[in-house]
Design a protein that fits this description.
single chain, about 60 residues
């Protein structure tokens, strides 16, 4: 995961550590990534519907064993 802080820094977590980046290039890369993730995200009723579908598919996997 990563966190953007007011266009001044981005922190990126790994399994064992995290990095703090403040260079303009790095910030731009993560700002673009955030925009892409936000574009793909769903909210509200649409998110609830998606989560119900995923939960149903997950339960079905267990029944197939």
């Amino acid at each position: 995961g990563f966190h953007l802080y007011d266009r001044r820094a981005v922190t990126v977590g790994t399994k064992t550590a995290y990095a703090v980046m403040t260079e303009e290039y790095d910030l731009a890369v993560y700002e673009d990534l955030f925009v892409e993730i936000e574009r793909l995200a769903v909210f509200g009723a649409e998110a609830a519907t998606l989560l119900r579908r995923i939960a149903g598919e997950y339960r079905e996997l267990d029944r197939q064993r």
